[in-house]
Design a protein that fits this description.
The chain has 96 residues and is mainly beta. It is built from 1 helix and 8 strands; from the N terminus they run E-E-E-H-E-E-E-E-E. The chain has a 5-stranded antiparallel beta sheet, with no helix packed on it.
Length: 96
Amino acid sequence: MLRLIPVDEVAYLRSDEKYTLVVWAGGQALIRKPIRELADELDPARFVQVHRSVIVNLHQVTQVLRCENETAELHLRGRSQTLPISRNYLHLFKQM
């Protein structure tokens, strides 16, 4: 079954080996496209990579919590789980 997912509704994408998990307001789905390719196709003003395996929609971020070892966690609108921010990407959230 083919399902079109509006890009504006995507909360985040997480790498799952050869697949990518796309999570949006209406659910989640696995797609057969690596996260590396998706990173090149998404609008960099809206979507940023925050970990080697995670790309997040900046419009869904509600809070950034600093953790030990110069890492952090993201909280997203309407979601209970947090997403990791690795040291390599923490500079993107210095203003938050």
